[in-house]
Design brief:
about 140 residues; mainly alpha
């Protein structure tokens, strides 16, 4: 009976060890599969990025070529008109900048004047309050 129990226990231990080994092997396989999947995702992302960069570069080159051919085919009048429009846009930008600077300067001056006026009014009120207190003090005497 003891011998049978010992054999049974040995068989159970052997089964548990086999199961543990199988679990470890399965875990290793899953980890390896996951790593391979991550690597392939990374490689795909890199490939897509390269492709899109190539497409962008080609598209910008085509755009530049189209612009160049359009400029070459433009008449002298169109070119002159474009130049005038560019100059007008530059002038408008300068004018707007100057107006903004002037407006900012005027606003700052106004703000300063408001501050001075508020200070003057406050000082005047303080003087009136002081005067009133003095009169009240004299009236009490």
């Amino acid at each position: 009976a003891d011998e049978a129990r010992a054999k049974e226990k040995e068989r159970r231990l052997k089964k548990e060890q086999e199961k543990r080994l199988a679990d470890e092997a399965r875990a290793k396989e899953e980890a390896e599969a996951k790593r391979r999947e991550e690597d392939s995702k990374r490689q795909n992302a890199a490939a897509v990025k390269l492709q899109s960069h190539g497409r962008r570069r080609r598209a910008s080159l085509k755009f530049e070529e189209m612009k160049a051919s359009k400029a070459a085919s433009m008449s002298a009048m169109d070119k002159a008109r474009m130049e005038r429009e560019k100059k007008a846009a530059v002038e408008a930008a300068k004018k707007k900048k100057e107006e903004d600077e002037t407006r900012a300067k005027v606003e700052a001056e106004h703000e300063e004047a408001r501050k001075r006026a508020a200070e003057r009014i406050r000082a005047q009120r303080e003087a009136e309050e002081l005067e009133r207190r003095e009169r009240d003090a004299q009236a009490e005497r």
